[in-house]
């Protein structure tokens, strides 16, 4: 650049004849270089800067370009223009970036709550002490193709409080006599509502057990049962009179009453299989003891490690152990 400036000053002091002669010599040298080097010439950044700047200041100089095309010089100038303004407008301040943890939280909240929009999510984040703009919340929300809709899991959970299930199971005694147990449970908290025992399960007896389990005030809306022949006309009339909608399962489809079948399996694995039943009275006592343990003490995975009758967490006091069912299970509490 210094040489160029000095050369320009010296050229101003020269005569016009000397300048024209020098230009002719330079052009002839360029023609010789063109014949000797037919390949594409490589230009450095300083060459592009000088040629582009001079031609931009003096547009008539485009006609004097010999080793490069005018379009190429214009392209160099535009690239320099973009580079200049990109450097001027580079990110140095402005809106702070949203951390990856907050972005994941926004996406999880939008997926878990499909009915919430950006204003609702933004309000919840402000209540959590997260200061982020509403436009940023809308940007990082999960995109949905169709309108928001609840899944089957949410739908069933919303209607679980009004559903009850019942089923019969067989228990052999010490004298190889068969006793029948009747289980009635609620789907809301997986709570055992009733456990009855009889040697002859008739429709009238099952109807009376259902009345005692549900009463006339807190009755379920739907009742799920299998198609056992013990549920006769008397039972069906009682169900209709109480106001319960009877929903029998399909033939040979125990999976349609999965909650009751799973609970019967737990009763067998955790209680009946470890006890020798002497009679109907003994079996009733064992099942009632297990029902109290199941509802008030035993934790469940489906209830987030809580009991059907919710247990509070105790942190103060000495831990005491109380045996249940003769030591088959134990209850732990603080005093």
Structural class: alpha/beta
Strand content: 5-15%
**Could you describe the largest sheet, including whether it forms a barrel?**
5 strands, mixed
Task: Write down the overall geometry.
Answer: rod-shaped
Total individual domains: 3
- Kindly report the name of the CATH homologous superfamily of the largest domain: Ribonuclease H-like superfamily/Ribonuclease H
Low-confidence regions: none
CATH class of the largest domain: Alpha Beta
The total beta strand count reads 7
* Overall pLDDT level: 84
Approximate helicity band: 40-55%
Folded structure, characterized:
The chain is of the alpha/beta class. It folds into 3 domains: 2-88, no CATH class; 100-143; 160-309, Ribonuclease H-like superfamily/Ribonuclease H (Nucleotidyltransferase, domain 5), CATH 3.30.420.10. The chain contains 12 helices and 7 strands. The protein has helices spanning 2-13, 16-36, 45-57, 70-88, 100-112, 118-127, 134-140, 152-158, 203-214, 233-242, 258-270, 280-296, and strands spanning 163-172, 178-186, 191-198, 222-225, 245-248, 319-324, 329-334. The strands form 2 sheets. Strands 3-2-1-4-5 form a 5-stranded mixed sheet, with helices on both faces. Helix 10 (233-242) links the parallel strand 4 and strand 5. The longest helix has 21 residues, at 16-36. The radius of gyration is 44 Å and the shape is rod-shaped. The relative contact order is 0.06. The model has no long low-confidence stretch (mean pLDDT 84).
């Amino acid at each position: 650049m210094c040489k160029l400036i000095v050369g320009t000053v010296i050229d101003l002091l020269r005569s016009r004849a000397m300048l024209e002669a020098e230009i002719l010599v330079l052009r002839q040298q360029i023609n010789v270089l063109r014949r000797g080097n037919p390949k594409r010439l490589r230009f450095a950044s300083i060459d592009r800067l000088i040629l582009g700047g001079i031609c931009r200041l003096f547009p008539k100089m485009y006609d004097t370009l010999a080793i490069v095309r005018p379009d190429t010089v214009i392209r160099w100038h535009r690239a320099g223009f973009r580079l200049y303004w990109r450097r001027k407008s580079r990110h140095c301040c402005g809106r702070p970036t949203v951390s990856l943890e907050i972005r994941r939280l926004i996406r999880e909240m939008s997926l878990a709550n499909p009915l919430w929009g950006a204003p609702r999510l933004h309000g919840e984040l402000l209540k959590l002490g997260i200061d982020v703009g509403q436009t940023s919340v809308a940007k990082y929300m999960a995109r949905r193709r169709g309108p928001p809709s609840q899944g089957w899991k949410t739908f069933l959970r919303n209607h679980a409080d009004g559903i009850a299930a019942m089923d019969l199971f067989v228990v052999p005694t010490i004298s190889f006599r068969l006793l029948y147990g009747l289980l009635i449970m609620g789907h809301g908290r997986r709570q055992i509502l009733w456990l009855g025992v009889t040697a002859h399960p008739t429709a009238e007896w099952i109807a009376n057990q259902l009345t005692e389990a549900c009463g006339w005030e807190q009755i379920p809306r739907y009742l799920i049962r299998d198609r056992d022949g013990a549920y006769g006309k008397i039972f069906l009339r009682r169900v209709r009179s109480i106001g319960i909608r009877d929903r029998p399962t399909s033939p040979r489809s125990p999976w349609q009453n999965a909650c009751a079948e799973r609970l019967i399996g737990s009763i067998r694995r955790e209680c009946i299989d470890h006890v020798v039943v002497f009679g109907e009275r003994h079996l009733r006592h064992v099942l009632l003891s297990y029902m109290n343990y199941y509802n008030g003490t035993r934790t469940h995975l489906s209830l987030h490690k809580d009991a059907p009758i919710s247990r509070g967490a105790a942190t103060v006091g000495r831990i005491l152990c109380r045996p249940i069912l003769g030591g088959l299970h134990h209850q732990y509490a603080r005093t």
